[in-house]
């Protein structure tokens, strides 16, 4: 399960109202992209869902339960960052296994989960390498592997491809949407890249200054943008 609902979610940093109030419904299994210009609050909204920031007000419901005051680990979500955040001194295997070890899983369970994730991500031949001996795309796959083994209710991606070159980005886009088709797990994907949003999303959430400007399928936004901002941002001719 992985239905996520935001009700009047607000976030201020001191006197700065970064998220004045967001209502949003994400269905179980949906691939949702948060898109908007730099500084509009995409990462903050994702971090609120993940529990890496506390809400100033409002509810975050995961499968009907308000988790707004729960610790990140209790929310059953896995976050994949732009900067990979891998441990350089550990092998790929141990990077992927790390969270499972911390959770006290048995060696056999860990091995089965790591091998299965490695197979999905084409990392089987790289398990004994360290991150320094991997390409950017492989490192990003290790970061995704670490998320997969925890079997989350939803994956949260914060601009995971922005450190990769253009050609690799196209490949990784296909890999991530392929992963979504295979796992059918809810994914929330943050980007400032309109092309990523249009090509990857089941549902796009367009943000500006911490507000939701429009929610809809890529072609619905393109054909019927709610306002000039959405039209301009999505590249719609209207
Ligand atoms: P985006 O991911 O869309 O680029 P962010 O969510 O990172 O935007 O930031 C939204 C706004 O909130 C920006 O004005 C940013 O400076 C501000 N902000 C983010 N995190 C903090 C923080 N910890 N303290 C103060 N301001 C912050
Ligand atoms: Mg950001």
Automatic annotation (TrEMBL):
Keywords: ATP-binding, Nucleotide-binding, Transport. The keyword Thylakoid does not apply. Residues 4-234 form the ABC transporter domain. The keyword Nucleotide-binding applies. It comes from the Bacteria. One of its GO terms (molecular function) is ATP binding. Belongs to the ABC transporter superfamily. This is ABC transporter ATP-binding protein. The lineage of its organism: Bacteria, Pseudomonadati, Pseudomonadota, Alphaproteobacteria, Rhodospirillales. The chain holds residues 1 to 238 of 335 of the full protein.
């Amino acid at each position: 399960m992985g239905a996520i609902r935001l009700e009047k979610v607000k976030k201020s940093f001191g006197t700065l109202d970064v998220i004045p109030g967001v209502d949003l419904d994400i269905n179980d299994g949906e691939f949702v992209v948060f898109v908007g210009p730099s500084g509009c609050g995409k990462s903050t909204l994702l971090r609120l869902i993940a529990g890496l920031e506390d809400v100033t007000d409002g509810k975050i419901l995961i499968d009907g339960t308000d988790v707004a005051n729960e610790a990140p680990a209790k929310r059953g979500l896995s976050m994949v960052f732009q900067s990979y955040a891998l441990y350089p001194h550990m092998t790929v295997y141990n990077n992927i296994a790390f969270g499972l070890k911390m959770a006290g899983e048995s060696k056999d369970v860990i091995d089965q989960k790591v091998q299965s994730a490695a197979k999905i991500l084409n990392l089987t031949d790289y398990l004994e390498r360290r991150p320094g001996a991997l390409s950017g795309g492989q490192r990003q796959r290790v970061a995704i592997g670490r998320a997969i083994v925890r079997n989350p209710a939803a994956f949260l991606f914060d601009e995971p491809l922005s450190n990769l070159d253009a050609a690799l980005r196209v490949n990784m886009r296909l890999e991530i949407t392929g992963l979504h088709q295979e796992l059918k797990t809810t994914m929330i994907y943050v980007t400032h890249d309109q092309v990523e949003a249009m090509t990857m999303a089941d549902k796009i959430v367009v943000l500006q200054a911490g507000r939701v400007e429009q929610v809809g399928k890529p072609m619905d936004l393109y054909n019927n943008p709610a306002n000039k901002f959405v039209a301009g941002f999505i590249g719609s001719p209207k």
